[in-house]
Amino acid sequence: MSNRKRFGVSSAVAAILLIIGLIIGAAGGYFITASAPPVTTTVTSTRTLTQAPVTTTVTATVTSTTTVTGAEARLSGEILVGALMSLSGDLASFGKRESTALKIAEKEINEWLKQSGQAWTFKIIEEDTATQPALALQKLQSLAARGVKLVIGPLSSGELRNIKGYADSNRILVVSQSSTAPALAIPDDYVFRLVPDDNFQGKALSKLISTAGVKHVVVIYRGDAWGDGLQDAFSKEFSKVGGEVVPIRYSPDAKDFSAELSSANAKIGDWVKSYGASKVAVLDISFDEAALILLQAKDYPNLMGVTWYGTDGTAQNSRVISDAGDVAEKVKLYSTLFAATSSPKYEKLRSQVKAAIGEDPEIYSYTVYDIAWTLAIAIATTGVYDATVIKQIYPTVCANYFGASGWTLLNEAGDRAGGDYDIWGVVKTAQGTYDWAKVAVYSFASDSITWL
């Protein structure tokens, strides 16, 4: 993927965007010169983006003109930013780490604002959605009642789909760190996502599984916006290379998976007899319930005799390790996860989160950190707390930002414009415990898998 871009920016906005270079490598605070009250500014962004999408190779040149209207008075006091977080529920193992990253970002942003002489502070209000779409909407409505106009999260596509209508109609800007459902890739709405949609992950999974020689896959998947979308994206890609898929869908509220596992076990058994175990696999598209699925799968010998694959819902999932590490190690559970770009900022945040909670962050800890920073930069650039204004300039901010997760360039749907995927597997350590280890990398540019 190559990208060429030209930005015509007023001196006021250019001064703000100069901080991006500092953010890339700064080990301490971040600095910006306090400016006069902002004025009406036009930012014209012309970028030529050449990339290889899922279906074909397209070169597109897009010219967009963004008009940002500033306020007559400087911002002051607390600027409230909501955060819809999975502190409990099916993504709680991710929510804990991402909440920690947000607190680190909030502290650093306020240090930067103080050093730059700003009269406002950046206040994040976290709300626990329990990974439930209905509760996510209630929490968003509660935040809106408090005057919140910018919201980080939620984690899951099911939650995001349920709040999108309310956010759009009430002009609340929502930026998710981890929602990937292709159906939510909609241009010019009030939703942005700092990850690629699952058309990219579906292609990475297909390449990973097909290059292992597998031709027949049972997909056990979560029946929600995320699971439905990723299953569909994978199946389409896998069928292109001659693969066969049997999808088995379960309810997100399920606690007993015996019916699904029994069906999978029977199909796997038939395929193994016909093609051999090396040609057969299981793909598990789950959240934290993957641990329970693995534990219950121990009773099905056919399932235990083939390799399992997973997704961004299982990769680096601490619940899988704590509850079902031995089973996951037996079946490998090779799982795809959008890859952050290694940099000093990446390493700094990794060390900070590890020091705070004793766990390594996963990719969405890095993206949620970057969301906080890009929103703060957008507010400082425009000088207003207005979701419609921020919505207009946010893609330009992201195009010029290199954060803890890497370059945050967005596509025309407001989602991250693609990238590589790390492959994680469960291994037994020298101490006899179980842990995640990065075992391979999928290259988006070359559509290839490299084992480490």
Task: Explain this structure.
With 452 residues, this protein is an alpha/beta fold. The protein folds into two domains: 76-195 and 342-376 and 402-407, Rossmann fold; 199-338 and 420-451, Rossmann fold (3-Layer(aba) Sandwich), CATH 3.40.50.2300. Helix content is 41%, strand content 25%. The radius of gyration is 22 Å and the shape is elongated. The two termini are 23 Å apart. The model is unreliable at 1-72 (pLDDT under 50).
Q: Cα distance, first to last residue? A: 23 Å
Number of separate domains: 2
Shape: elongated
Number of helices: 14
- Average pLDDT across residues? 88
Indicate the CATH topology of the largest domain.
Rossmann fold
CATH superfamily of the largest domain: Response regulator
E-strand count:
18
Radius of gyration: 22 Å
